[in-house]
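hey can u run this one w/ (3S)-3,7-diaminoheptanoic acid bound, need the structure tokens asap thx
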Amino acid sequence: PKEIFLKDYRPLDFEIESVDLTFELDPSETLVTNRMKFVRKTDQSQLKLDGEHLVLVSIEKDGKILDQEDFYLTETDLTLNCPEQQFELVVKTRINPEANTRLEGLYRSSGNYCTQCEAEGFRTITYYLDRPDCLSYFTTKIIGDECENKVLLSNGNLIEFGELEGGKHFAVWEDPHKKPCYLFALVAGNLEVVEGHFETKDSRRVDLRLYVQENNLDKCDHAMASLKKSMKWDEERFGLIYDLDVYMVVAVDDFNMGAMENKGLNVFNSKFVLAKPETATDVDFEGIESVIAHEYFHNWTGNRVTCRDWFQLTLKEGLTIFRDQEFTSDMLSPAVKRIEDVKRLRSFQFPEDAGPMSHPIQPQSYIEMNNFYTMTVYEKGAEVVRLYQTLLGRDGFRKGMDLYFDRFDGQAVTVEDFRNAMADANQRDLSQMHHWYIQPGTPKVTVTKQYDAGNKTLSLSFKQTLNGKQEHLPLLIPVVFDVLSPSNEAALSFSLSEVDQSRCSRADNGWLFELTKHDESLVLQGVEEEGYLSLFRGFSAPILLDYACTQDELVALASYDSDSFVRWESIQTLALMNLIENVQAVEDNREMVLSEYYAKALESNLADTSLDLALKSLAITLPDESYLQEALSDKGMLINTDSILAVYGYMKQTIAEKFESSLLAIYQQMQSSEAYRYDKDAIAHRMLKNRCLNYLSKLPAQQDWMQTQFDQQSNMTDVFAALEAMKPYDSVWKKANLADFYHKWNHDDLVLDKWFALQASDQSDSALDLVKSLVEHADFHYTNPNRARSVLGVFGRMNMKGFHHASGEGYAFLASEVLKLDKINPQVAARIVSPFTQWKRYDVARQEKMKSQLTKLIESGSLSKDVYEIVSKSLK
Ligand code: B3K
Ligand code: ZN
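ok here u go:
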């Protein structure tokens, strides 16, 4: 397969002024007529259009049908000579939506037609200049059987519709905004609509429509409310107003990812639209709110201002993730949201960046673009956008955003353009920020302190490294910190020399020091006592912190730091130290222990009645397994998953035993007989209650709570938490509850996905047999991405016991499933194969076994370029 490089980017030779599409829908033979007006922009007269999986019916230039010898056709493109300054092409192609299991381009899902064009799906609909810098005006006529397609939708405004003979009807949509073809969408089928409306700040009425299947009409309230909140928030926070009279969201069951921001016509995975308390958990509700917001926010950051090429993906994704994070933070709890985002980054992005697929947020090359919709481009990208806000403050960031839209509305631009807008609006030189975009890896910042009691100075030195070395271009790292008095918990006052004042200033949550060099130090003057350092408050940069903090200091910070992130982080660090000690203990055949420091921190957090309930829940939660793995790898240790499983088993059990009475008391206090509400307080109550339940379930005397809670059937959050708690038990009652759940919910695919996922992550001794039986289950379908991910995705990522089974059978199973899936849906297969990429982290025996599966995959010789890219890069 061919590799595409950023350095090879060339501007367009031809522009497409307008595109006029006609779709004559048919399940297996849809005819697409594409009329394009071209303008030549350079003296290059060869026009090369992208096209894949197409049957070319005819091609006409300025009214003349072209012969075979007038153009050159390959599997991926169509080339013709166009010396004219302006000309019109009409290309007719035939496609087969029903046979399209790749779910890219035009396909059918539950009998409805829908499209997915980002990144390069439009070329499977018709021949086109399928690149984001080709902006054009689209008009779309859809013709279809009236009984089968009550609704006919595309982007923009409906300008015409009517009946046709033979039981057909048609609709014509016109999009008044120029757009790249990746934002094109078409939906047709028998869908029902839920309507709402929103009045914009400038008093325009926008019709809001959610299209779903009839049986889901009762699950749309939350999505509709989320959409209205998003529209209002974007007006208030960024002054951004919606620009069409209608905003449509369609929920489909078969979708490769979460959702898609097509102009005026979002297509969503139904998982991110449908919810009611009986079927969806708090996490699902929160996911819907944030994905609805994310796609809505793309209307400005992505659609109005789009990307010049796919190497700029983080321009729209990093920025839009940042915006949806800020939105959720305002809707729920800023402190909780920040911690959850950091957890996600560390558990998923850090390993990606430390593995063979590591790439900068602006990748420099790709084989299959769809493989670069990654945690790095999205989540690390969002962290980099956040750096601008940390450096410039909220107001400065807003000024930069305003200038960005003033300058680039209606254009396809680059990450440099964004940076320059931020810099110019704030009269600051931000060129060093470029280094964050082009270097892969998680930077490490080592901090040391030295207190001179005589001179009352506290010297802080900072050192930054990347991938273990100091050969990188130094990064601009905002370090937000404070110094706390060990005696009275308050921040210590200090002064700075004049020179230091330019590098270190007051921030909302402490002091902001701008680290710009590989090595740098800062001297705080007039410091009355040697304080405790509260570093990287609010996680002010996406780095690994290396700071030799004493455990006493950590216990203190874990109990009273006013920055909720550092408070949580300190207890996590104590937990991590304890976990690592225990991993070593298992490997040296020593007894495991619960460290007294970690226990102290747990105790003070459990006892703190003023602490926010959700933060309390986060405080008593052990770090994720993947974060521990990350830490072990960072120390150069190979991972033996058996030890890790033993350590987590021991820790959970011991914590439950030691804190039984407070956990029980809290569990009981958190009970509520009120009806389900989706708000910050109610969520926090359930979160803490279910965390306690999980610990209590380890204790024979407290096991009945699981069944009681399950039997109450109050809402899916609580029901599912009860099932989660039962998971480790190989018991008759667990099986009975699972069977109950299945019978109650097997008509609801999204709930059934949970049932599958729960079992795919079951780490009992029969984990492997269980997962094998799941893919044989009558309700398992390779063609449905949600189902494939619930079983195969979950197994690879969350079932350490089964996937990493010492026999290597878990590896063999997943690899053979990837091969099957790759023939059906390469994009999803490429995601499912990713746990293999981490093979170098594991003990030698496991490494060998994982690697041999990767080799087998390559040797199969039949991989899609999606899977090929991941597998081949992992073997390098
Ligand atoms: N932009 C889409 C993702 C498209 C993924 C293509 N493989 C959804 C989003 O990020 O909002
Ligand atoms: Zn996005």
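The radius of gyration is 28 Å. anyway lmk if its weird
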